[in-house]
Design goal:
With 258 residues, the protein is an all-alpha fold. It has helices at residues 3-28, 39-48, 50-84, 86-100, 104-115, 119-143, 147-155, 160-198, 203-212, 216-244. 81% of the residues lie in helices and 0% in strands.
Length: 258
Amino acid sequence: MTEHARRRLLSLLCILGFFVFWEFMCVGLAVSELVLPRPSAVLVTLVDRFPAILPHAVQTIYTTLLGFGFGILIGLFLGMLIGSSRLAYDVGYPLLVGFSSIPKVALVPILVLWFGAGTVPAVLTAMVMSVFPIVVNVATGLATTEPELEDVMKTLGASKLEILWNVSLPRTMPYFFASLKVAVTLAFVGTVIAETVASNKGIGNLMMIASSNYNVPLVFAGLFVLSALGVSLYLVFSLIEARVTGWTKRRDDFSVAG
């Protein structure tokens, strides 16, 4: 067995051990399901209520991906603008930091007043939550591009746009994909926040109704679904990152010639 396979197996055993510990702790301490349901009870709820949970999960993933997509477009544009212009940095960065500091729970009622309850506030909340890390990482990647590379392109007669496209943006890709893996989890947070406040569909709405009925296993089933969706998207972007930015990784299997 290779070192990589052993590491994966060890991590899987640790995760399984966590859930086993959780199960035996609840059984041994006789913890009520109203306080902390056993993982087995949550799994049974997931299986029994799957036909009812599925439409809510589809709505949440659709809303999250739509808001996340808009967040990528806006984040890339603002990040390129702030990272390429000192004036844009001085003006836009403080405004961006101030806006990102606003609790998004306070933002959802305003969005509901403007657009009404439903999918639109959830999409916008997911977008707002995911924009900031993308902007910061893209701007940082552009700002830390080696001046030597830009000087070489200038001596070859390249324009600013050609330097941006051929040097700056490729050097920014590791920062960009790192931000995507953070932003997609924040987009889920934004979607669920909006669904609990201003929606009649989605995992957030399902969890809110379940908690009002003291159906704690169903609440935890919703949490498990959100975790699974978040981990799945994280892995997807990790695979895309490995394909696109594989040139930034150092190889572990250096061979010594001679």
